[in-house]
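FIELD: query
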Amino acid sequence: MSMIRRVAAAALGMALAWPAGAQGIPKVQSPEEVGFLSTRLKRLSDRLNEGVKNNELPGAVVLIARNGKIVMFESYGFRDKEAKVAMTNDTIFRIASMTKPIVTLAAMMLMEEGKLTLADRVSTYIPAFADTKVAVPKKKDDGTTEMVLEPQFRPMTVHDLMRHTSGLTYGAVGANPVKQSYLDMKVADRSQTNAEMADKLGKLALLYQPGTTWEYSMSTDVLGRVVEVASGMPLDKFIEERITKPLKMGDTAFEASADKKARGARPMKEGPKNELPAIPDITEKFTWRSGGGGMVSTAADYARFLQMFANGGQLDGVRLVSRKTIDLMTADALPTDIKMGADMFRFEALEPSARMGQGFGLGFAVRNVQGVNPLPGSPNDYFWGGAYGTYFWHDPRERLYVVFMMQSPQARLRYRYLMRDLVYQAMVN
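FIELD: result
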């Protein structure tokens, strides 16, 4: 037994079983085979066990792969801490915004079929956006500010949706009349259809002129509706038939079936009020198929998704997109004069800004330069996470990808930083 296995066997709540979703991605005989040191990987295991012990997080699953082989696939802590159910490798998580790369890929597949182009106006698919106005703050004579509606300088495009330069926003973060209108109109109502959601947004003012500002937003939710219109299929069915089934991602969907309920990860109480975060059960079904954050998955399933990217658009003989499409998705798509939205500082080291040495591709952030950002990585690596605690990155230069799954909104930024630090310190060749 290798050292990493001896370490992992002693780890709190570790699972040795390899779920079916990991099939097709081989394991290394030892981490040293692909340039990792077992003794240094122990630091990662020790830190996660410490986090569980100190009530920083309920539990987590980590999957590290290099050169197309899994280096480490371990679980820590509890799937349900209150019920004292141990975390396992096949645990299913609400992945929130890690849905965005999947939905963006769906749109890129339609691009390859000639059913849409990235330069298309969004109003081509959702007519409600044809007359959408932009809310612009204007100072009045008395010194107060009012919001004045102005026409778009140029129409919002599908490309804008993919890179979050659409002028759309989220209603929950920050305070201004546009964000408040999202709350008033209940644009995130889970009982609505994707068509109803998109029509609501088309009637509301934009926060910024399209193409001028990076504002994390409901853009990918709107993109999900574009996928429906362009394909003639419901978003969940398109993703199932064209992405998750071909890639054998059997635990990835907009909800898990009832027989998988026991495998769902649950959060623990956290925050200033010490209460359970509002994370829906994995089996809860919503009419709104949120393209921006509605899916569930496992670490093994998401690893297959990333391996497809690493392979240039194919996995196990199944090709979803071309290598050039992968190249387009993983390149920085933001203009050099792009501004950051007023509330985007909350992303801290993950902010896709020049000051952080990063930009945004199509569905996720990308790193442009080495040294500006306080976290280790490589130019051209790409990454994103979900509000409930999940996180991934792919470093093509190092032929490395990592999937980190937990359900802890409060700890998510801290542990994303720790994962970067602890994975790279263990990779010595």
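FIELD: remark
The two ends are 22 Å apart (CA to CA).
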